[in-house]
Amino acid sequence: xxxLVEPLAAAAPLEAAAKYLTDRIPRYTSYxxxxxxxxxxxxxxxxxxxxALPPDASLSLYLHVPFCRALCWYCGCNTTVTRHRAxxxxxxxxxxxxxAMVADRAVARRVAHVHWGGGTPTIxxxxxxxxxxxxxxxxxxxxxxxxIAVEIDPRQLDDAMAAAxxxxxxxxxxxxxxxxxxxxxxxxxxxxxLNATRACARRLRAAGIEALNLDLLYxxxxxxxxxxxxxxxDALTLAPARFSVFGYAHVPAMKRHQAVIAxxxxxxxxxxxxxxxxxxxxxARAGYVRIGLDHYARADDPLARAQQGAGRSARLRxxxxxxxxxxxxxxIGFGASAIGQLPQGYVQNAPHLRDWSERIEAGRLAxxxxxxxxxxxxxxxxxxxxxxxxxRADVPATLSRHGFPPDALDAExxxxxxxxxxxxVSNEGGVLTVPEPMRALVRRVACVFDAYLxxxxxxxxxxx
Length: 464
Prior knowledge:
- By secondary structure, the chain is an alpha/beta fold.
- It has two domains: 1-32 and 373-464, Arc Repressor Mutant, subunit A, CATH 1.10.10.920; 35-331, Alpha-Beta Barrel (TIM Barrel), CATH 3.20.20.70.
- Helices cover 34% and strands 21% of the residues.
- It has helices spanning 14-17, 43-52, 85-105, 126-139, 159-167, 182-187, 194-206, 225-236, 269-285, 302-306, 353-361, 375-390, 395-401, 410-415, 417-421, 442-446; strands at 6-7, 24-25, 58-65, 67-68, 80-81, 110-118, 141-152, 172-178, 211-218, 242-247, 289-291, 295-297, 317-319, 322-324, 330-334, 339-342, 345-349, 367-372, 392-394, 426-428, 431-433.
- The strands form six sheets. The protein has a nine-stranded mixed sheet. A three-stranded antiparallel sheet has the order 16-17-18, covered by helices on one side.
- Strand 11 (289-291) and strand 12 (295-297) form a beta hairpin.
- Helix 3 crosses helix 11 (353-361).
- The protein starts with 5 loop residues before the first strand and ends in an 18-residue tail after the last helix.
- The model is unreliable at 1-6 and 457-464 (pLDDT under 50).
């Protein structure tokens, strides 16, 4: 999943939305966002924060495997291309050590969600995957029915790996698709016929892994509304439980391999709007419920059920894996560049393999930066998350809940006036609602509450 900030695109009436389509807006999988993490948070801080977790705290575990067999040119992930086993085996060996170190420092053990991301996590191979899951079960308590999810490149999964996933308890798999248009696939160096993805889905289901997610992208080179519609129709034949629909973030200044993609092959802002809407409409017609900004789920899926609440009763959350029904009080990250979230703040491991490896070999936690949260950070994060999840935020109630005076965010509420005039949001006594036609512009509303956002700094994606 690309984690970079992307240009804003929306399935909203162009007359109202056009002026916002090239704004540079974070995806708000955290607040403050990762560019504002700093080295002032150290591995020593992380150790203290882990030890302070209550014994009955609910945990979510994220394991990052930053290796792929080949590089897709659209990729925004932290990954390394290798065709050799040794680097992967060394990495997985060190991850076992990291898991043990973290478990030694944390008295909390209860785990309801495990997510393997990458890269291509299945590159670990059957033996290493089983061993890692066995250690997690030994050092933590995975509650009955815990969701264990893994991201998969459908071109790389064989029967042995599918069997190992099932034996290790995996019950949800996310399949990277992006597009089925062969012209677009060639342009991004990811040739993946529909039959290959269908064979992967069959292999997983035959192993007993029924809950499948599919990732689709729009805004890719040579992509059109028609090809987006066709890819959505093809994807629907696989009958997944969920879809994630992301806009391609073209940031060659940050991801140099993206320079292979010529600017003139990319769709403009209005075309991106039409592509996003075409995919969304196709999924909605097939009965999928739209979740927040960019996810879709069958009505009986836990994600759709989580969205049925609102405000304080809502169970829909947003974290670094996107939308989730995970209620965990702490997210523990393992592996290079992995991010964790604890009550005190965020921590991030060394992003470079050598730095991460040296720290683990030395018996140190791999944290190199993070963000200690202030009361104001928590207030703003609460409002942003509810907007991103519910399209609604009760600002006065949130201020009261966090112990702030009623006028603490008056400047932000005033700054919403131009957006309200354009129909992006309604403000009824501080209760904010993003209308359904403007759903995909919710990030533009949420960013008003981001005290750290400086689009002119150039840290965010180039506008499309």
